[in-house]
């Protein structure tokens, strides 16, 4: 077989497969190329004949009539299911969203999820960049001593009010 013939056979097969419903229901509507392919290809012709046999069987099949109590039993089961509440809060919410409301909650749920993702992403960024360690924390006692050391002018003014002599370091002498 040449590659050209194989290609045309697959193209004919695809055409026949695409128009199989037309070939089953109304062969006059189907494309002539599809009918020609069915005449030439034994496999496609066999498939069409099997489908036609199945259609003939379906034409003779009759659906059984439901029992006279079918509607009554169905209505009773529906009332029973409506009367039984779902087991948990999650099941009740799910049943309300899926079956009990004409309002579509999908846009609301999508917006809520987008908001949660934005909050989560912002929190992750804040934790990564905001948690950088700062310099060492100094204790309150060290801070107070540094302030007192820096306030030597205050000591000098207090000493001048007391009239007491200062030692060489600038600290008041103990009397």
What this model shows, in words?
- The protein has a domain at 3-60.
- Helix 1 packs across helix 3 and helix 3 packs across helix 4.
- It contains nine helices and no strands.
- Residues 1-8 have low confidence and may be disordered.
- It has helices spanning 3-18, 20-25, 32-40, 42-60, 70-83, 89-100, 106-130, 140-150, 152-162.
- By secondary structure, the chain is mainly alpha-helical.
Question: Quick recap of the structure?
Answer:
The protein is mainly alpha-helical. The chain contains 9 helices and no strands.
Structure keywords:
single chain; 175 residues; mainly alpha
List the helices and strands and how they pair.
Elements (H helix, E strand, L loop, with lengths): L2 H16 L1 H6 L6 H9 L1 H19 L9 H14 L5 H12 L5 H25 L9 H11 L1 H11 L13
Helix pairs in contact: 1-3, 3-4
Share of residues in strands: under 5%
User: What is the typical, i.e. mean, pLDDT?
Assistant: 77
How far do the termini sit from each other?
A: 123 Å
The total of helices stands at 9
Biggest sheet details: none
Q: Encode the helix/strand succession as letters.
A: HHHHHHHHH
């Amino acid at each position: 077989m040449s590659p050209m013939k194989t290609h045309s056979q697959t193209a004919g097969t695809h055409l026949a497969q695409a128009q199989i419903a037309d070939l089953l229901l109304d062969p006059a509507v189907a494309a002539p190329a599809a009918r020609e392919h069915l005449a030439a290809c034994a496999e496609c012709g066999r498939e069409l004949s099997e489908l036609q046999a199945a259609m003939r069987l379906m034409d003779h099949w009759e659906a059984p009539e439901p029992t006279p109590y079918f509607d009554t039993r169905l209505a009773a089961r529906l009332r029973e299911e409506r009367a039984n509440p779902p087991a948990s809060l999650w099941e009740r919410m799910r049943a309300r969203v899926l079956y009990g409301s004409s309002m579509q909650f999908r846009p609301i749920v999508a917006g809520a999820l987008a908001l949660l993702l934005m909050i989560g992403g912002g929190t992750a960024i804040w934790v990564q960049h905001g948690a950088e360690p700062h310099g060492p924390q100094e204790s309150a006692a060290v801070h107070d001593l540094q302030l007192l050391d820096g306030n030597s002018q205050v000591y000098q003014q207090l000493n001048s009010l007391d009239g007491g002599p200062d030692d060489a370091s600038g600290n008041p002498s103990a009397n």
